[in-house]
Amino acid sequence: METRLTLNILALLARFLSGASARWIDSQPDTCQRIYFANHTSHMDSIVIWSALPREVRMLARPVGAKDYWTAGPIRRYLSYHVFNAILIDRAEIKVHRSPVDIMIREIGHTHSLIVFPEGGRNTTGEMGEFKSGLYYLCKRRPDLELIPVHIDNMNRILPRGEVLPVPLLTCVSFGPPIWLEQGEPKFDFLQRAREAVRRLKEM
């Protein structure tokens, strides 16, 4: 009960600080297993997407983040493990037999969804970088998962790099129509199509 209350309070706080509003374009919130993949401009991105989801969907969504950032200090560590149920990737210990894709597939089982950022690191220019191959290999392993493109607007200005407190501006989280990896689709073509699905939401 206490954890659920904490989750609800943090979701409300994240929406208040970011001024985030959610819109669903040709898709609807659902508790089915999904991969929410988004542009990445701020450390708050995963929290903002998580808080923009309805409660019953939010409880099943697991953000993916860098272990070195989200375990730096007791507050972040508590939030990542006990509140967001995040999947943390140790970037210094990536091995062939313990790849980030293997970890994510194991952690979500057949119940949870993922919140991922295919660019990898944050982009402070406002323009999306190229998508890395992890999203493609996730889909190769679990072609049954719906892929929901997500575009976050304004977060790079609300929490600029190096700042601790957010600047009060409004942001919008747009959830687009689902896509899937097509049978035989080359990696480069898929990643370009996925990137375009996110970019296109900015113009809608």
Overview features:
204 residues; alpha/beta; seven-stranded mixed beta sheet; 9 helices; 7 strands
Can you characterise this structure?
There is one protein chain. Strands 1-7-6-2-5-3-4 form a 7-stranded mixed beta sheet, with helices on both faces. The protein has one domain. The chain starts with a helix and ends with a helix. Helix 1 crosses helix 2 and helix 6 packs across helix 7. It has 204 residues and is of the alpha/beta class. The protein is built from 9 helices and 7 strands; from the N terminus they run H-E-E-H-H-E-H-H-E-H-E-H-E-H-E-H.
Would you summarize the structure shown here?
This protein has helices spanning 2-18, 45-52, 55-58, 67-70, 74-83, 100-108, 134-141, 155-158, 187-201; strands spanning 20-24, 34-38, 61-66, 87-89, 113-116, 146-153, 171-175. The protein has 204 residues and is an alpha/beta fold. Helix 1 (2-18) crosses helix 2 and helix 6 (100-108) crosses helix 7.
